[in-house]
Amino acid sequence: MERGGATRPATRGPGRPLRTRLPLPPLPLPSPSGLLPPVFTTAFPAALVTVLLATGCVPSERTGTPAPSLPPTSPSATAPEDVCVRIVTHWAREVLDGTSYGDYQSMGLSNGQYDILRDAVDAARPVRERQGTPAAHGVIGRHVRGACAERYRTGGPADEGAWR
Hints:
Among the domains are: about 30-65, no CATH class; about 80-150, no CATH class. Helix content is about 45%, strand content about 0%. It contains 5 helices and no strands. The termini are far apart.
C-alpha cells in the first residue's frame, strides 16, 4: 500500500510479460427487416446503422435500386473582383461613417485596394453632406465596383508586383 491507503497499479518489470489487448472481431448486428447488406451489419456500430436506416442512405435489397444520394458538390471559389468589391465596400462605409480604425493591412486590404477605398470615400463625402448617407453608400458601391472590375480585369491585379 502507498501513502493514503491507495495502491499503485502493477507496472511491467523484469521478467514480467507486457499485456497487450487483441482486437475483438466485430459482432454481427441483427438487421431490422433484413434491409441491410452483410457489410453494414458487421462493420458499423448499431447507432450508425440506425442513422443510415433512418436517413435512407443504404441500398435496399428488396428493390435492387441504390438509395438516393446527395448531388456531387463542386468547390466554389469567389472571383477576386467580387472579394475586392465586398471588402473594400465594407471598409469604405466604415471609414465614411467614422467607425473604422487602423491601416489598410489591419483591414485586410492590399495597397491597391486601399487606394480604391480612399478614392471612393473622397467621392462619397460631398454626396453625404448634400444627399445623406444612403446616397453616399450608393456612390461607394458604384465607385468600388468599377475600380475593382478595372483592377482585376485580367484575373489579378493589373499593377506590377503582388503587394499592389
